[in-house]
Design brief:
With 426 residues, this protein is an alpha/beta fold. The chain folds into two domains: 147 residues, Aspartate Aminotransferase, domain 1, CATH 3.90.1150.10; 265 residues, Type I PLP-dependent aspartate aminotransferase-like (Major domain) (Aspartate Aminotransferase, domain 2), CATH 3.40.640. It is built from 14 helices and 16 strands. The protein has a seven-stranded mixed sheet, with helices on both faces. The chain has a four-stranded mixed sheet with strand order 1-2-3-15. A three-stranded antiparallel sheet has the order 13-14-16, with helices on one face. It binds pyridoxal-5'-phosphate. The site of pyridoxal-5'-phosphate (PLP) has 15 residues, from helix 5.
Length: 426
């Protein structure tokens, strides 16, 4: 089949993420990927500024990750996790318990980030049910969040960008506080927490948990906020007896400069969701971690079991590559690499904040965000980036990057030069 033929089958029959089947935005055929580069079918190479949506932190086709998955493949690709167990799962659980904040000691393996959020919500609700407080079933979150595309997760995404109106008759309704406005390093203003605190004061009797993305909100708007907000949230959750779920599916594994973003606020959640970079971008795998207080309460009260168990739970290939990816990260100079990316992004992008078309520039860890005043024509802008040899996929009015940590200063310069060139044409 020639390229024209198979691309036309794609266009005619395949839904891509958030796409229309009528005049879909063109997709580019990738045939290989190596290091920070994607190789298209015409032989051109693009530097991946997106790390395939936060996940490919070590770059593509990494020999150590390939070796881990190949060696597991020779033993077994998959077995059911009901009634069976295997070393890759146990090794991964042990490693996750070691590197995540103290007290998170129980691990539930999920097949994607959205499922990890569903599991977290179920755990929180079942914890209160088991504690004899089954009226605590609602969630409290902040505006501009993103937690996944399944129904439970979607119900805590920002109501506008999550299109709640279409599904309002079947989505559970939760509480939404104003999104924090404090900048990452700005002085704390107590006003920022008022909306959150008021909702908690009024409704804590029916709220099972707070769920939010710490420090950096991803697909809901790419907003960055200050650690003090999180400290206040933790304090209020304790005061009003509400669990705290942190969704670190995007921020986990170093992206914001610390291994987990919650470390910057020095807080520990009751439930933590991880995904995306967990396997270094090799396979879909996510986890929900919790503490023994929650697991004990659930396990010692009827129905005594936690009712969840996906078919591909703890897939051995995914677990083995996750173990290899975490080891690779911990052995690498990841802090210096991320600090270097942050410094370079700040130096180059922040001066663009004076451009008339730019609303705001934000940088945190290995994430750089250019917020424009007007929505972007994604098709045109994506095409311009491809011509400049970089892969960047904007959304709404946001051009943002979160490259693999192994990107060199020269490669990152190519990416930021392309951003500046494209922004200047808007
Ligand atoms: C991507 C993401 C999810 C959903 O993960 P999937 O693997 O796409 O289901 C949930 N929460 C956050 C913060 C994310 O960035």
């Amino acid at each position: 089949m020639n390229q024209q033929d198979w691309l036309s089958i794609d266009k005619k029959h395949i839904w891509h993420p958030y796409s229309s089947m009528h005049n879909p935005i063109p997709v580019y055929p990738v045939v290989a990927a190596e290091g920070v580069y994607l190789e298209l079918e015409d032989g051109s190479k693009l530097i991946d500024g997106m790390a395939s949506w936060w996940s490919v932190i070590h770059g593509y086709n990494h020999p150590q990750l390939n070796a881990a998955i190949n060696s597991q493949l020779d033993k077994m690709a998959h077995v059911m996790f009901g009634g069976l167990t295997h070393r890759p799962a146990v090794e991964l659980a042990e490693l996750l318990i070691k590197i995540t904040p103290e007290s998170l000691e129980q691990v539930f393996f999920c097949d994607s980030g959205s499922v990890a959020v569903e599991v977290a919500i179920k755990m929180a609700i079942q914890y209160w049910y088991a504690s004899g407080q089954s009226e605590k079933q609602k969630l409290l979150t902040i505006r501009s969040g993103y937690h996944g595309d399944t129904f439970g997760a979607m119900a805590v995404c920002d109501p506008i960008s999550g299109m709640h109106n279409i599904f309002s008759h079947i989505l559970p309704s939760h509480y939404f506080a104003e999104a924090p406005t404090c900048k990452h390093d700005a002085a704390w203003d107590q006003k920022d927490i008022i909306s959150f605190k008021t909702l908690l004061e009024q409704h804590h009797n029916e709220i099972a948990a707070v769920i939010l993305e710490p420090l950096l909100q991803g697909a809901g708007g790419m907003r960055i906020y200050c650690p003090e907000y999180l400290r206040q949230v933790r304090k209020l959750c304790d005061e009003y007896k509400v669990l705290l779920i942190l969704d670190e599916i995007a921020t986990g594994f170093g992206r914001t400069g610390t291994l987990f973003a919650c470390e910057q606020a020095d807080i520990i959640p009751d439930i933590l969701c991880l995904g995306k970079a967990l396997t270094g971008g090799y396979m879909s795998l996510a986890v929900t971690l919790t503490n023994s207080k929650i697991s004990d309460t659930i396990s010692s009260n009827p129905p005594e079991v936690f009712m969840h168990g996906p078919t591909f739970m703890a897939n051995p290939l995914a677990c083995s590559v996750a173990v290899a990816s975490i080891k690779l990260l911990l052995e690498s100079p990841w802090q210096q690499r991320i600090a270097q990316i942050e410094k370079q992004l700040s130096n180059v992008l922040i001066p663009c904040s004076t451009l008339p078309q730019v609303a705001d520039i934000r940088v945190l860890g290995a994430v750089g965000i250019v917020e424009l005043k007007k929505p972007i024509n994604i098709e045109q802008v994506q095409q311009k980036f491809v011509k400049l040899g970089v892969w960047i996929r904007p959304f709404r009015n946001l051009i943002y990057i979160m490259p693999p940590y192994i990107i060199t200063p020269a490669e990152l310069t190519q990416v930021t030069d392309a951003i500046i060139e494209v922004v200047n044409t808007l």
